[in-house]
Write a structure and sequence with these properties.
mainly alpha, Iodothyronine_deiodinase, single chain, transmembrane, oxidoreductase, two-stranded antiparallel ribbon
Length: 137
C-alpha cells in the first residue's frame, strides 16, 4: 500500500513538473496562433474591396478565393486547437527517444511467446540493427 502511494505521488510530481516546464512553451504557441488568426483576418478584411470598388473595376474576386467568413470553424485559435497543442507538447516531453541521446531499448517477446529479450540483444558486433515495422499486405 505504501509503495503504491509513493508511486502515485511520484507520478503526480512528474506531471506537475511537466506542466510547469511546458506552460511557457504552450503560452508562446497560443500567442502565435492568436497572432496568426489576427493577421489573417485583418489581411482579409483590409484587402477586401467594397461593393462599389468591385463593381467599378469590373472584376470580382478570384474563383479560388473563398468568401470572407470569420467563424470558429476556420480559425486556429480555438479551444480544440489549444487542447491539441497541449497534448502534443506533453507527448513530446514524455517520449523516451530524444535527438542526441541513446536509443531506447524496450523489451520484446519472441514469436513463441516464451522468451523475453531487449531489442539491442539482436545486434551483432558492429553491424547496424535495422527494424522494419512495415506491412506485407
Amino acid at each position: 500500500m505504501l509503495h503504491s502511494l509513493g508511486a502515485h505521488t511520484l507520478q503526480l510530481l512528474t506531471q506537475a513538473a511537466a506542466c510547469i516546464l511546458l506552460f511557457p512553451r504552450f503560452l508562446l504557441t497560443a500567442v502565435m496562433l492568436w497572432l496568426l488568426d489576427f493577421l489573417c483576418i485583418r489581411k482579409k478584411m483590409l484587402t477586401m474591396p467594397t461593393a462599389e470598388e468591385a463593381a467599378g473595376a469590373g472584376e470580382g474576386p478570384p474563383p479560388d478565393d473563398p468568401p470572407v467568413c470569420v467563424s470558429d470553424s476556420n480559425r486556429m485559435f480555438t479551444l480544440e486547437s489549444l487542447k491539441a497543442v497541449w497534448h502534443g507538447q506533453k507527448l513530446d516531453f514524455f517520449k523516451s527517444a530524444h535527438v542526441g541521446s541513446p536509443a531506447p531499448n524496450p523489451e520484446v517477446i519472441q514469436l513463441d511467446g516464451q522468451k523475453r529479450l531487449r531489442i539491442l540483444d539482436f545486434a551483432r558486433g558492429k553491424r547496424p540493427l535495422i527494424l522494419n515495422f512495415g506491412s506485407c499486405t
